[in-house]
Sequence to fold (185 residues):
Amino acid sequence: MTNFVPLLLHVCCAPCLTVVQKALSQEGFRVTAFFYNPNIHPFQERQRRLETLTAYSESEGIPLETVEAYPLEENIRMLLEAENRCYACFEDRLSATAEKANEMGIHAFSTTLSVSPYQNQEQIKRAGGKASYKAGVEFIYRDYRDLYKDSVSVSRENGMYRQPYCGCVFSERDRYLSIKSPGMV
Ligand code: SF4
Fold:
């Protein structure tokens, strides 16, 4: 019988969770999903992604922890003041995940962000490493970009909501202007 290792997984959205949860389970991790994404603007968009995630987690029996607080002003201020907006955004979300894992007595954390071919993997790795050091919880980094196409297929087959932009109000604008956000590749 396999002894699964508990892991807290920061989840950006349900489509990315589909493939990452399976890959981590195959590696021997028992995943608890964690939704902390104050970078998703506006509120209704955040709710729509959270509702999709809640429905998927329930259907698959994946435990889900959610942060209900939505500090919009604080988040926009942080993104505006950051030297590199996306790096600050990764650091905020991964630090919260590492701290939550520590609080829950879970010794490893990871993120679904590394599925996206549009995100800067080096920045994700660096932000996760820093969060790991501060909270004393191991960061399990995996480059899941080769699973991106599968996540698109699985989510389409299941009629899942797929968001048309990364999350913040800047990325919502940038997609129309063909501007790349600082952490996007
Ligand atoms: S583009 Fe995405 S990763 Fe970058 S700051 Fe906005 S929400 Fe965060």
The pocket of iron/sulfur cluster is lined by residues 39, 79, 85-86, 89, 166-168, 170-171, 181, 183 (CB under 6 Å). DSSP finds seven helices and five strands in the chain. The CA atoms of residues 41 and 168 lie 5 Å apart. The chain has a mean pLDDT of 95.
